[in-house]
Amino acid sequence: MSTEELIAGCIKKNHMAWNEFIRRYHGVVQRSVYFKLNRLNAGIMLSEAPDIMQEIFLTIWSKNSISGIRDITRLKRWLVMVSIHGTLNYCRKRFKEMREEKSLSSRLSFSPQSFTLESTLLCEKFNPVRIFEVREMKTVLDKEMGKLRNKEKRVLELNILGGKKQVEIAKTMKIPPNTVATLIRRAKKKVRDGVLECGYHIL
């Protein structure tokens, strides 16, 4: 059966064609799923890879997504993108379920008090259950940091990322220590407020 015939059969909901489609492209979907899980550092989800693959194939079948393919030569590339997107959605859903099932303290291998603006910006090691969420939060943090005024961003970077004390920052930037303290306090509040608006909460 040619690829064109296979696709035509799948669009018509032919079960024989669909079974052949799964057999023929199972490897493409499998490699894409494991690739995305590894990129997300979601090792905890590796055991669920077969479930992710099944969900991807079921979604393609139920939505007849394959009918949207215009260039048959790009079928494998399309499958890779669908698989990566499907894996990402599955992980988001599963991690949300995990958060709802367990309390914060029981889900983390560190004290809840350590889940702070500083630790997130520094990307410290998190429990695998939360690594995906933290990566997303880090993206939000970077975006909020970019909204700060130049001087606010500078003092925050020197303080948190550079590990410098307020006195050291004052000497570096040639401004009074009290001004440094004010800038840090104001910058942290802006970042925290921005992160909160995006649905996250940090100390």
Describe the structure concisely for a colleague.
The chain has 203 residues and is mainly alpha-helical.
What are the SSEs and their pairings?
Blueprint: H1 3-11, H2 15-39, H3 49-63, H4 75-101, H5 104-107, H6 117-121, H7 128-145, H8 150-161, H9 166-173, H10 177-197
Helix pairs in contact: 1-2, 2-3, 2-4, 3-4, 4-7, 7-10, 8-10, 9-10
Descriptive notes:
The protein is mainly alpha-helical. It has 2 domains: 3-101, Rna Polymerase Sigma Factor, Chain: A (Orthogonal Bundle); 112-197, Winged helix-like DNA-binding domain superfamily/Winged helix DNA-binding domain (Arc Repressor Mutant, subunit A), CATH 1.10.10. Helices cover 71% and strands 0% of the residues. The chain has helices at residues 3-11, 15-39, 49-63, 75-101, 104-107, 117-121, 128-145, 150-161, 166-173, 177-197. The radius of gyration is 23 Å and the shape is elongated.
What composes the largest sheet?
Answer: none
Under CATH, the topology of the largest domain can be stated as: Rna Polymerase Sigma Factor, Chain: A
Approximately how much beta-strand content do the residues carry?
A: under 5%
State the helical fraction.
over 70%
The structural class is: mainly alpha
Q: How many runs of DSSP E, i.e. beta strands? A: 0
Order of helices and strands: HHHHHHHHHH
The geometry reads as elongated
Low-confidence stretches: 103-115, 124-129
